[in-house]
Amino acid sequence: xxxxxxxxxxxxxxxxxxxxxxxxxxxxxxxxxxxxxxxxxxxxxxxxxxxxxxxxxxxxxxxxxxxxxxxxxxxxxxxxxxxxxxxxxxxxxxxxxxxxxxxxxxxxxxxxxxxxxxxxxxxxxxxxxxxxxxxxxxxxxxxxxxxxxxxxxxxxxxxxxxxxxxxxxxxxxxxxxxxxxxxxxxxxxxxxxxxxxxxxxxxxxxxxxxxxxxxxxxxxxxxxxxxxxxxxxxxxxxxxxxx
Length: 243
Ligand code: ADP
Fold this sequence. Notes:
There is one protein chain. About 35% of the residues lie in helices and about 25% in strands. It has helices at about 40-50, 85-95, 100-115, 130-140, 160-175, 190-195, 225-240, and strands spanning about 1-10, 15-25, 30-35, 55-60, 70-75, 150, 180-185, 195-200, 210-215. The strands form 2 sheets. A 6-stranded mixed beta sheet has the order 5-6-7-3-8-9, with helices on both faces. Strands 2-1-4 form a 3-stranded antiparallel beta sheet, covered by helices on one side. The longest helix is centred in the last third of the chain and has 18 residues, at about 160-175. The radius of gyration is 18 Å and the shape is globular. By secondary structure, it is of the alpha/beta class. It has 2 domains: about 1-70 and about 145-240, 3-Layer(aba) Sandwich (Rossmann fold); about 80-145, no CATH class. The structure holds adenosine-5'-diphosphate (ADP). Adenosine-5'-diphosphate (ADP) binds near residues 42, 43 and 204. Adenosine-5'-diphosphate binds near residues 15, 43 and 204.
């Protein structure tokens, strides 16, 4: 679906964030981009989102450049409008595309149900927990029915219990929706639990040092599966060698 070929990115201040990254992403895959802080993961995601352009190399979508709404982006912070309700926040991307509430309302309601927030449409962000605010943020990304979901450490600020639940719910969503997910994280446990493929990056300038296909069964029970512990050990070894 997407091919990056020899992509590099050096910023105006001289910081070389990415060096010679080549990566093919298949439709429907769940890919974790895993590496230490500052290794260029967000930069890579921004390039894929079209929010930035590479200095060298190329980025090609098989079906041509993504149309508006085809990509959903979820940040580490929920970035909700504090004065607006959950439903109004989820409505925003559709409103910006000129849809009336009469048309968008059912889609907004469906997106809130998808993320487990049925009954919270009228709640303001300050009335919701951190996990629920992130669910609103995910619903806002899903409401345009994206084919690709780009997620930049969305669960990093959440407590362990909430994070586990959101990870499990994200896996169910991915299976139900059949979309492609690119998930940036610096947690190897998170990458090992969620992804079908783990792309390991070196410290800055980010290069791809390993590309691991996960054999861990997908689902809540995976954390207890011996293959999960083996994968975590594998990733740890590769990260040590890359440091
Ligand atoms: P990660 O997501 O892996 O933590 P980033 O992609 O955010 O890493 O950043 C990679 C490096 O590029 C960091 O050193 C960061 O400070 C730098 N960087 C990111 N964006 C910019 C920018 N717009 N201008 C200058 N430096 C930047």
